[in-house]
Amino acid sequence: MIDIDIARRLRDAGLVWEPADGDRFVIDNELLREESFMLSSMVIERGLSRTGGKVFRFNGTTEWALDSVEQHEALWIPREDQLREALGDAFLALRRAGDGSFAVTLVRRDGAEREVPAPRAEDALAGALLIHLTDR
Length: 136
Description:
There is one protein chain. With 136 residues, the protein is of the alpha+beta class. Helices cover 23% and strands 31% of the residues. It contains three helices and nine strands, in the order αββββββαβββα. Helix 1 packs parallel to helix 3 (121-134) and helix 2 runs parallel beside helix 3 (121-134). It is elongated and about 50 Å long. The two termini are 27 Å apart.
């Protein structure tokens, strides 16, 4: 799972989240940011609030006393496959280095290739996506 700070930077850089079953998120406040949640029609489902805003409903007693939370209060933690998909055609390769770290090769908007190293594959993909989203 990528770091919450990187997820926040991806959101702020324009990564759009269309929530779907299996997505992980955190409620980005002091009390709950260490607890990750997964959308599931069995436990947490998407819905609309009384005012028409998107909410996540917590069913039963599985998730303490939470009833629902507005989507804008939730911070998406994209998975490795979602990060790769968001990179689209900018993604060229993901390779594992001899020391066990990973590197993503991406094509920048100017056509130049750039390698983004990180200790874990999802971190390399998140770093590459952040570069891609902010590369103007």
